[in-house]
Amino acid sequence: MDVGTLLSVSEAADELGVNRQKVLAFINGGRLPAVRLGNGWWVSVSDLTRFAQVERRPGRPLSAARAWRLLRNAETDGTVHVERGRINVDGFQLVHLVRRRAVVHRMHVLDRLVGELMPSLVAAGVAAARQHGFAPRSSRQDGDGYLRRSAFDSLVERFAMVPAVSEEINVLLRSVDDEVWPFDDSERLVGPLTAAVDMAGEPIDDRSIDAAMPIIERYL
After folding, report:
1. What's the pTM?
2. Core-most of 63, 113, 116, 158, by most CB within 10 Å?
3. What whole-number distance in Å separates Cα of residue 83 and Cα of residue 85?
4. Beta-carbon neighbour count of residue 58 at 10 Å?
5. CB distance 126 to 176 below 8 Å
6. What is the pLDDT along the chain (220 residues), one digit of tens a residue?
């Protein structure tokens, strides 16, 4: 990552119009990607821009259960609804509304183990977009998938995964509470809308957003 593209926590707070403690809470909660240099955290301009686009949109995010119901129903009937009413929102608003469906863990695993890891997950994000045919050509992320929260610790231990930042990330694990787990045992791939929402919410780079947004907009 080019250090010239980074902002300090104080600079990021000024850009967002919040205090430093709020930015640190975003970082510590895994909502705002950051890299530690010396004694401080630094945030890239592009990550901050995406955070402002998605995370700080108006409207309270849906519960995990409602978010999954919205996405699953939309992929069945081809349009986005909440309960009985259609949501008249743009793509980033939808990404914001359903962001509580899972907790995203940015991880690193030995490259040779990514292929062995994926059968234990429901392929998501770029990994799913590759199978649906709309992933960016130079996608960096090798592994991306959903798993039950109860399976998280054992899978991390099995593959010796560690939390990672920036270019070291090669797996995104999206843990979902067992009580709202939306997939059948035979499912190993999310639908195109969910894959696109995954990509826009956790983009590798601008190409991820460019590829994801036209897919999302088809359902709005």
Report:
1. 0.77
2. 113
3. 6
4. 7
5. no
6. 343 478 889 999 888 888 898 898 888 777 788 887 878 888 888 778 777 766 655 567 889 999 999 999 999 999 887 654 555 567 888 888 898 899 888 889 999 999 999 999 999 999 999 999 998 876 555 799 999 999 999 999 999 999 886 678 899 999 999 999 999 999 999 999 999 999 988 877 778 888 999 999 999 8
Within 10 Å of residue 127's Cβ, how many Cβ atoms? Answer: 25
CB–CB of 180/68 below 8 Å? yes
DSSP 164-212: --GGG--EEEEEE-GGG----TT--B--HHHHHHHHHHS-SSHHHHHHH
Burial of 95 from C-beta contacts in 10 A (0-12 / 13-18 / 19+): buried
End-to-end alpha carbon distance in the chain: 35
Name, in order, each residue with C-beta under 8 angstroms of 216's C-beta and a sequence gap of 6 or more. 91, 94, 95, 193, 196, 197, 200
Rounded CA-CA distance 68/180 in Å is: 8
Domains of the chain with bracketed CATH: 3-53 (1.10.1660.10), 64-217 (no CATH)
